[in-house]
C-alpha cells in the first residue's frame, strides 16, 4: 500500500522532471509524516525515502527517539515558538520554517558543537493575504544576510506554502515568484541551492518552477485525520 503510493509519487516527480528537462535527481522527496506513527515511517523508509518532515515538536521528538536505529534525516517544517528552539537545534538536520532573526539566532546558539551546521530555509509569505507565517518578500534580503552570517547554521534557500490553488498556471505563477526571490538572493549569497516548495496538490507546478525539495504527505500516506480529531499546538 505505502509502496504503491511511494512508486506513484516517484513516477510523478520523474515525469515532472522530464517535462521540464530537469535531471531526475535534482528534486528530493521529503516525506511529510506529521500525524503518522513511527511504524508507518519505518514502513515507508523500507521503500526508499530517508528524509522525513514534521510539524509538531513533541510528536516529532517521540518519533525521532523511537526511530534512532534508522539513518533518517529529520526536517522541521512547522511554526516555531522561540521558547521551543533548543530541541529543534538538537534533534533536526534541517529547519524549513525560519521566518525571523530571533529564531535563527537561537537555533545557531543552541546547535550542539558536535553536530554539522543546521540547514536552514527561510519561509517566505508568498500569498501574503492568506497566511501569517513567513517573512514578507521585501524583508527577505536583510533576513537572509543576517542568517547567513550566523555560525552554526547553513542557509540553504527558501520555503513557501502558497495558498491552495487548483489552477496549475496560477500555481506556477506563484512558484515562479519564489524562484525569482531565490535568484535575487543568490547574487549576494551564491551558495543558496534550495527551493522547498510543492506539496501533494501542486508538486508538478513546483518542479516546473525549480523546486529542489518537494514536501509530500497525503500522496504518500493517504489523507490525514481531520484537524478536529487531534489537538496540536504549534511547536
Ligand atoms: C502538511 C504539510 C505538507 C504536506 O502536505 P500534503 O498536502 O499532505 O502533501 C507540506 N508542507 C508543510 C509545511 C506541511 O505542513
TrEMBL record:
The keyword tRNA-binding does not apply. Coiled coil: none annotated. It comes from the Bacteria. The keyword Coiled coil does not apply. Residues 20-225 form the Alanine racemase N-terminal domain. InterPro entries: Ala_racemase_N, PyrdxlP_homeostasis. The modification N6-(pyridoxal phosphate)lysine is found at residue 34. Transmembrane segments: none annotated. Keywords: Pyridoxal phosphate. Belongs to the pyridoxal phosphate-binding protein YggS/PROSC family. Pyridoxal 5'-phosphate (PLP)-binding protein, which is involved in PLP homeostasis. This is Pyridoxal phosphate homeostasis protein. It comes from Marinobacterium weihaiense.
Amino acid at each position: 500500500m505505502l509502496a504503491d503510493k511511494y512508486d506513484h509519487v516517484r513516477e510523478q516527480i520523474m515525469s515532472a522532471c522530464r517535462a521540464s528537462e530537469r535531471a531526475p535527481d535534482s528534486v528530493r522527496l521529503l516525506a511529510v509524516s506529521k500525524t503518522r506513527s513511527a511504524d508507518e515511517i519505518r514502513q515507508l523508509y523500507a521503500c526508499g525515502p530517508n528524509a522525513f518532515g514534521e510539524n509538531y515538536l513533541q510528536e516529532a521528538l517521540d518519533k525521532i527517539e523511537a526511530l534512532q536505529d534508522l539513518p533518517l534525516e529529520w526536517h522541521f517544517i512547522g511554526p516555531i515558538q522561540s521558547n521551543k528552539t533548543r530541541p529543534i537545534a538538537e534533534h533536526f538536520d534541517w529547519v524549513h520554517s525560519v521566518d525571523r532573526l530571533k529564531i535563527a539566532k537561537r537555533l545557531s546558539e543552541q546547535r550542539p558543537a558536535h553536530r554539522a551546521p543546521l540547514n536552514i530555509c527561510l519561509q517566505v509569505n508568498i500569498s501574503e493575504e492568506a497566511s501569517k507565517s513567513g517573512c514578507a518578500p521585501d524583508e527577505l534580503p536583510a533576513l537572509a544576510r543576517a542568517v547567513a552570517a550566523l555560525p552554526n547554521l547553513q542557509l540553504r534557500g527558501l520555503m513557501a506554502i502558497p495558498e491552495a490553488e487548483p489552477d496549475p498556471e496560477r500555481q506556477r505563477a506563484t512558484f515562479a515568484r519564489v524562484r525569482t526571490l531565490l535568484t535575487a538572493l543568490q547574487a549576494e549569497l551564491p551558495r543558496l541551492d534550495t527551493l522547498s516548495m510543492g506539496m501533494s496538490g501542486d508538486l508538478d507546478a513546483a518542479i516546473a518552477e525549480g523546486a529542489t525539495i518537494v514536501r509530500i504527505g497525503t500522496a504518500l500516506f493517504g489523507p490525514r485525520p481531520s484537524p478536529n480529531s487531534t489537538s496540536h499546538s504549534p511547536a
